[in-house]
Amino acid sequence: MSDSSVDIDGEQVRVSFILAKNQDRSLEVPSDPIAVPSSTRKKGLSAIINHLLDRRVDNKDGSDEDSDSDDEDKEPAIPFDFLVNHKLLRMSVEAMARREALSLEQAIEIEYFPAREAPEGEGESESQPDWISSLASTESFVVSGICDGSLRLFDQSDAFQQVGYVKAHAGPVQCVSSVEMDCSDKLLIASGSMDQTLLMHMVNKKNQINLHAVCSGGHMSSVSSTKLLSTGSGSASLASGDWDGGLCVWNVPTSSNESSESSSKKRKGVASQDVQEVTPQFFLKAHASNISGIVGAYQNSNVLLTSSWDHSIKSWDLESQNNILTLNGAKVATCIGRCHNSDVVATGHPDCTVRLWDMRSNTKNEGSLFDGSLRPSHKSWVSAVEWSPNDPFILASTSHDGTIKVWDIRSTVPLHTIKAHAKGSKALCLSFSKNAIYSGGSDCVVKRFRF
Amino acid sequence: MARKGSKKQKDPEPVIEEEGDDDSSESVYDSGAEEYEIDEEEYDSDAQSDSDEEEESEDEEEFEDQGSDDDEDEVLERQIKAAREEDEDDSGDELEIIDDFENIPRSFSQTKGKRDKDGKVVTKDDEDGVINDPEVSKLMHTDDFSSDDEDAEGEGNRIGRVPLHWYDEYDHIGYDAHGKKVVKQSSKGAGGDLLDQALQNQDDLENKKYIVHDALNDKDVQLTERQLEIIRRVQAGAFAHPEFEAYPDHINYFSGVDQMDFGINGDRYEPKARFQPSKYEKAKVRQMLKKLESGAITMDYLTGKIRDMNDVRREKKEGEDDKPFMMWKGDEEDELHFRKGPMHIAAPKLPPPTHATSYNPPDEYLPTEEDLKEWEDMDVKDRPHGLLIPKKFKNLRSVGAYEHAVRERFERCLDLYLCPRVMKRRLNIDPESLVPSLPKASDLRPFPTSKCIEFDTPYDSDEAPMIRCLTVSPDGQFLASGASDGFVRIWEVQTGRLLRSWNLSKLVSTGEDNDDEAESTNAGPKAVVSLEWNPNRSHHCMLAAVGKCAVVIATGTGGTDDAELTEALLSSAAACSGDGSNVKNAKAKKAVIWKGFDNSSDSDPISAFGGRCGPIVALHTSKDVVSAKWHKKGDYFVTVSPKALSAAVLIHQLNKAASQQPFSKNKGGEVQRACFHPSKPFLFVATKEHIRVYHLVKQTMVRRLLSGCKWISSLDIHPSGDHIIVGSLDRKMVWFDLDLSATPYKTLRYHEKALRSVNFHPRYPLMASSSDDGTVHVFHSMVYSDLMRNPLVVPVKVLRGHSVVNKLGVIASIFHPTQPWLFSAGADGKIHLYQDI
């Protein structure tokens, strides 16, 4: 089958295909070297693999009768993506080999795996009264913070309906974070607002959102970032950062009584019986300016990673309340996202760039910035960045230009660009769940993009 | 023995002892030919060349032979040496050895002698054939050079140079070489008396025999003919040796072309110049005389007592070291004037001739009659060819004398006569090299470069309202804008979301209901012309100027603590009812009325703990307020209403709701802007052309800065307080360094139209100016803490993006307080945030 590519004139390089790890074994092809034209790109290689796998390949010219008859019972072709030297192939094979300084004398080892398909827009919420400023997602729910101060709960089912609503804050919600509490099978939502309030809500089984706790006494300016950290065994802690660079850590109080149905109507009351007032566990002046994002460290619930408008990314030890690592950049960091299985973080910046940082910090000076690993691709202020919860290479970013870009960190250019929001409206927030990306912005609609 | 080779210059040694050698020499001559044959065979390696040379040149042959003789000499010397050693060892063989010693050199030298003689004879024969005569040959040299020893046998007297009379009393006269006594001849019985001697002499004379007495050996020696000849020659003063050729023929040894030794160009006749006095020498002498006169050389040098004049000079110089000298010599401006004589001024360079000056110019250069008439009216200088009128001639020959020659020469002379005789010294410096090298803009990052957020002002009317003023909260979270529709709006910087807006124009006009209502209703909304957030981070309020009012607005952004502070600050002002009871100052009381707004105009605060939010108090003045600026500490503020004459500048204290009128008189025209020094009690007041600096405590004017502008439109103070920038409507931006003079340190003319605002960045070394040409220019403005270094101002970026509406471009610009970002507001109703990428 590879003869079709051999008879093309021009230079040829020999490649051997290896199935990437953790992939379906049925896609394996023999790893014997094959000569391919040196100018072959991703598509050509993908066609070769599909040939080898005896799958149907779309031949524009090949309308032979026998192939047609063959194709009837063949499986459809799969688009593949290829890795040369652990980097995604985004140019011709030869150019890539030269860039990676691989010898053309030997067969180039190319790993392949089924390409990640572009997410498709599938369902959007009904129009909200104000801008969607923040989103958080869990296994089954999506929580959105709206600029009118309300929180909206969506389920992740196909219908994508709003299942809960609460008018939580007086000012615009700046940040939400949610975590599913295993013990009580409930969803805990923390939301911070521009009006300097930080609230915790509990979602019960009937999808009613009840005010769980009021955090008071911590922040003296707008709460700009928040993160709920599940500490296991049903307990959680909350970290929040404000505009002046203050970082607060709060204990999430365990729910005392379950009879909150009645009090849901009296939510606006100053203090219903089940609402607890929480004071901060500790307060740190962590940054010189706005803390724009907080994430927990990998496998260490005692470490927080924060990004700030003072151009720095810091990691904090919650037990000793010490700064472990400070990485200084040149630009304001507007958001932060961490890889699900390592301490590599991505930050978004107003200069249209997503940057990757290595926050692994056994010793002080170990962290570093992978500069130029992701090229500036957005057209405007990057407002949110989220890592895929199941793929360590995939992350998504969104920007004021209204697009979502899906990145594979093994390539410098984005995998996919989704025009999520109408032109002229800004995308402000992003949430990456296991099988979908949610985004919200100034068009007041939460959009869902499924893989 | 080494001297034997030369042919003609024979050894001049006397041959007195060799009496009987004549015969032998004869024989040598005779047998020469045969001997030669033998020799030739001996050196047969050279046979061929010898035979050739024999015919052509005997000289070379001689050299050849000499070469071979050396070998023989060596052999000989070795043998002699060996013989002598033997001699010393064994005296018994004495006689034999001596015989050997005698024989070996003799036989050898004979051959040599023969050869020499042979060669000589041959040449003589060949050349002139004069000395073939045996008589003559007797005179010739016959020395065979057998030995240097005159007394080879050793029989002569060997007493040395001792007086002979020592031996008078003995019968011997001395000892020979062998130690035997030499017996006296006279004692043997030969000794006659003097008479016998005289007779003998007479006989000898007759027989032509010349006998001399050898006193040392006590012998009579008869002189040979040769010896006589030599004596005769010496007496005559000629060369002693008859065989010495005094005038040998010239032999041209040089190969090549034979010299022409005849004809007029030959060197046979000396040139005439050799018999005439030398012109060169004359010139040389003149030169030396001149040098002598000028002192460059001395008589000692000419007479040769001094080798080098430099030595004398050096000595002089060393001697002069201690003497006083003119310290500034050579530094004078007009050192040239010390030179002798008038300055040489070169005539101006004439332009090269053109077609018009040709004797046969192309037709298009010939003037028409109209041209000529036109030229007549013109001044000579303005005519295209000056005095010359292009004319066509048939040929160059027919061109006459230049008619204007006299006139032109006269004018040239006049020029020279009238021209000032001062040489102007021109510095020959490339002006480019004097320009200080500015650093590259890319090295001065960060500075705002590109637009990233647009803040869209909502509007109902057809035209977007002009944004007149901007301000950013001290923490950089919020932006406030004042527009021409009378609204003050608060935006969130991060997202560009509009948070709050208040229609100040409406509020103010309803407030001043007692004024003539017709005017206020007809005039439409009053623009918010000035807006400033309170610089104190814990005071959450801002100051707006709208119409005739300055309005304090609580922003409601503070936290619990800050809200209390703000509340305390605003409480007394909010309580003002407009009756003027709060203002104690009598003058200010007339000028301003504080009037608090009731709570109905309040809106929800941005912060849940923010307290009151919305306009708190309006300060009604008599004329339009154009500027309201806070003091750094956020309690005092100054308002400017230019038309209000003496009450143009008013200082208010918010905390006490008090006002002051600092000036009783209006000086220097309408006041445009006023602002406080960030750290010292200074007030800067800008009129249209000047900036006055007042000390508020001493209540005096400290300085007056002359801007050089016609109409100052904006003013900003550097955060350090030592520098001021001023923007003017006549397109200039002026930088004053307060430590320097009252005139501008720098005047920057970059904009094409009037400047509307100028700003310093509070943290970064940045400065921006916005203009009606729709651009914002960003400058890097580094102020060094080192007082000796001047501030560095480099233009780094031109920000575009605003469109020009009604000839108004960017009206306001302001930097973000913490980031290198710039907000700009234009007449097109847009607010842009530019950031560094």
UniProtKB/TrEMBL annotation, chain A:
- Give every NLE domain span: 14-95
Coiled-coil intervals, chain numbering: none
**Which residues fall in a compositionally biased region of kind Acidic residues?**
63-74
What is one term from the GO cellular component aspect held by the record?
Answer: nucleolus
Q: Where are the WD repeats?
A: 284-326, 375-417
Residue ranges of the region described as Disordered: 56-76
Q: What does this protein do?
A: Required for maturation of ribosomal RNAs and formation of the large ribosomal subunit.
Q: Write out the similarity annotation.
A: Belongs to the WD repeat WDR12/YTM1 family.
Q: Which PANTHER family match?
A: RIBOSOME BIOGENESIS PROTEIN WDR12, WD40 REPEAT PROTEIN 12, 37
State the name under which the record lists this protein.
Answer: Ribosome biogenesis protein WDR12 homolog
Organism, scientific name: Chaetoceros tenuissimus
TrEMBL record, chain B:
Which compartment or compartments is the protein found in? Nucleus, Nucleolus; Nucleus, Nucleoplasm
Q: Which Pfam families match?
A: BOP1NT, WD40
InterPro entries reported for this sequence? BOP1/Erb1, BOP1_N_dom, WD40/YVTN_repeat-like_dom_sf, WD40_repeat_CS, WD40_repeat_dom_sf, WD40_rpt
GO biological process assignments: maturation of 5.8S rRNA from tricistronic rRNA transcript (SSU-rRNA, 5.8S rRNA, LSU-rRNA); maturation of LSU-rRNA from tricistronic rRNA transcript (SSU-rRNA, 5.8S rRNA, LSU-rRNA)
Keywords (alphabetical) are: Nucleus, Repeat, Ribosome biogenesis, rRNA processing, WD repeat
Residue segments, region Disordered = 1-157
Any one GO CC term of the record = nucleoplasm
The UniProt function text for this chain reads:
Required for maturation of ribosomal RNAs and formation of the large ribosomal subunit.
Q: What is this protein called?
A: Ribosome biogenesis protein BOP1 homolog
